[in-house]
Amino acid sequence: MSTATVLPVIAIHGGAGTMSRASLNAGQDAAYHTALQGILLAAQDLLARGGSALDAVSLAVDLLEDCPLFNAGHGAVFTHDATHELDAAIMDGASLRAGAVACVSRVRRPLRAARAVMERSEHVLLVGAGAEAFAQACGLELVAPDYFSTGARLEQLQRALVTDATLLDHDAPALAFATPPLDESRKLGTVGAVALDVHGNLAAATSTGGMTNKRVGRVGDSPLIGAGTYADNRTAAISCTGTGEMFIRAVAAYDICARMAYAGLSLDAAAQEVVMKVLPAIGGRGGLIALDARGNLSLPFNTEGMYRGHARVGETPQTAIFA
Amino acid sequence: MSTATVLPVIAIHGGAGTMSRASLNAGQDAAYHTALQGILLAAQDLLARGGSALDAVSLAVDLLEDCPLFNAGHGAVFTHDATHELDAAIMDGASLRAGAVACVSRVRRPLRAARAVMERSEHVLLVGAGAEAFAQACGLELVAPDYFSTGARLEQLQRALVTDATLLDHDAPALAFATPPLDESRKLGTVGAVALDVHGNLAAATSTGGMTNKRVGRVGDSPLIGAGTYADNRTAAISCTGTGEMFIRAVAAYDICARMAYAGLSLDAAAQEVVMKVLPAIGGRGGLIALDARGNLSLPFNTEGMYRGHARVGETPQTAIFA
Asked: Sign (positive/negative) of CA torsion B138, B143, B147, B153?
């Protein structure tokens, strides 16, 4: 494929879940659409100026981490011990290089730490205090652990502790500026991005705060290469969101690439198979965003909704929440 | 396939690497063959009495962890900070359930902690202090961190610190009772087991101490489902050993299953493809043990040797080190 034929594209997600009752009679989706659109425009602009897929997914996830509407970075959920533990991963489809961090609580931008692991270490995955020391040595910004805290997320933890429930995401319907369209008590929170650049390279990135009231030390699929994040120019770039343990057991992201490479499936057929059959067979709920090197996109989910959007260079960004 | 046709089998590995000069003129492989044989006999006996594949790989890895010849459990290598960080994973091919721990320093038997995560939590991967607290809550034995230390491993760290090298495994040729046949300065240390039981079920388990002088918080492929460990009755059970980061990027264990399921490759063809082509293409060195539900075995490695062996019920255990 000539590079001249590549139309760069960015796709992002902000978590999947079921429809909230509040959203049925209110136009309060607006804040989510606006946030997604702004992020898509920024990444689209970067790609239009010849920026790399790696830089596009990095920028998009930076912005998603900073947005308190989404469970990643600032606005991350609380663990059982009222701490935050953040996970992130990035992968370069051209070289199959990858980097990830898990269980970090003081790195302001976990995705940047993941990228530093990829570019500045011989490792793929660093966790906990070791990951934080590495990020600091790389000059990345560390913050006090309460930087990530928001009142809405603390309220969710307090509710979860009262009911002793381990919530998959968060349980506070009242974020400051909008009632979220997806039921926050059953939303599967993660953010992610996939991109194709003008050179025909793919990249994927994922970042998450995990589950409210989760056990300290729990790592989900997001930072695990092959499970929640994967990119290979020969097949696809994928970022997942959902019940992480099932995505790990199914090796969900890589399974899409394998079905394309070995069974000859199209991107959409492979992604649909994994999200609509493989994952439900073991109780897996959620969705993913998938992009191949020809610019084909597939954004399937088996929940009622998934915050998502995409933007091709030269076209108006598209955002959606429900099916 | 009728269960009556299944002949149970266990296979194990104790790391891959290059031949040491000392081994060229000495019969000092004996200690390794004896250790592998004893472990195979114990697991073979368990399988002969109708034991499950899960129990067989658990027993084999327990014994490998306890043996100071191998880099897992007692005899694990030291991190840069002179600590130990142990990783382990287990997967059940019948249910696709899996459990893993990473960066634990006080759990005597990391593989048992991984199994507890699988059987007694809703999670797949727990790391660090959270994993240790969970293991303790499950009644597993915790030990002082220096339980894992041996003089030989400490000497390796001291050598590595002097040269400022990050060794893939360990660098002390003089273990107490034998000069190891594989060059300890270039050995890729991990232990693992795969088994097929009389019911036709597959299981896989892997445990490791990682790399001498490794950065604190580094997690390799061993505890990552799909990378260093995978089991699915429909395809194969796999446990890997090698340069972990490359196995992660290639999703090595799951890739074998995917090539069997989607490309129709035999177990051996799929395993050879991954070990001899996919991994070398990104600089990956090491090997793996693979077993399918018909009892076919493949034990490929792209290094000069891999400590390995297998035993079918009713047959004499076979062990080997070099090609």
From this structure: positive
Q: How far apart are CA B311 and CA A281, in angstroms?
A: 34
A65 closest CA partner among A12, A132, A10: A12
Per-residue pLDDT reduced to its tens digit, A39-48: 999 999 999 9
Neighbouring-strand partners of residue A100: A89, A125
d(CA B190, CA B14): 6
Of B217, B226, B261, Cβ closest to residue A127: B217
Helix/strand/coil for A246:
helix
Distance from the A281 Cα atom to the nearest Cα atom in chain B, whole angstroms: 11
B26 band by pLDDT with thresholds 50, 70 and 90: low
Q: Are B229 and B205 in contact (CB under 8 A)?
A: yes
Rounded distance, CA A145 to CA A147, Å? 5
Cβ atoms within 10 Å, residue B13: 29
Angle, helices A128-137/A110-120, rounded to nearest 10 degrees: 80
**Is A190 considered catalytic here?**
yes
Contacts of residue A230, Cβ cutoff 8 Å, sequence gap at least 6:
A91, A204, A236, A237, A238, A253, A254, A256, A257, B251
Give the chain B residue whose CA is nearest to the CA of A121: B215
3-state secondary structure at position B253? helix
Indicate the average pLDDT of chain A: 89
Question: Residue B266, CB half-sphere, CA atoms under 13 Å: how many?
Answer: 8
Q: Mean pLDDT, to the nearest integer, of A167-178?
A: 41
A127 with B127: Cβ contact below 8 A:
yes
Detail the DSSP E strand segments found in chain B.
Answer: 9-17, 86-92, 98-104, 125-127, 191-196, 202-208, 218-219, 229-231, 236-242, 286-292, 297-298, 305-312, 318-322
Angle (deg, nearest 10), helices B110-120 and B53-66: 150
Note the pTM of the prediction, 2 decimals: 0.93
Q: What does the block give as tokens for B130? A: 């959270």
Q: Decide the pairing of beta strands A9-17 and A191-196.
A: antiparallel
CB–CB of A127 and B97 under 8 A? no
Whether B121 and chain A come into contact, CB under 8 Å, resolves to yes
- Within 10 angstroms of residue B199's Cβ, the number of other Cβ atoms is 13
Point out the residue among B96, B123, B225 whose CB comes nearest to the CB of A218.
Answer: B123
Q: For residue B238, give both structure tokens.
A: 């796999």
What Rg, from alpha-carbon coordinates, does chain A have?
18
Q: Which residues of chain B make contact with A256, given a CB cutoff of 8 A?
A: none
Q: Which amino acid would we find at residue A64?
A: L
H or E element in which residue B259 lies: helix B252-263
User: Distance between the two ends of chain A, CA-based, in angstroms?
Assistant: 33
- Tokens found for residue B26: 């000495």
Question: In Å, what is the CA distance from A95 to each residue of A26, A92, A118?
Answer: 46, 6, 11
What's the ipTM?
Answer: 0.92
User: In whole angstroms, how large is the CA radius of gyration of chain B?
Assistant: 18
Q: In this predicted model, what pLDDT tens digit does every residue of A104-130 receive, in sequence order?
A: 999 999 999 999 999 999 999 999 999
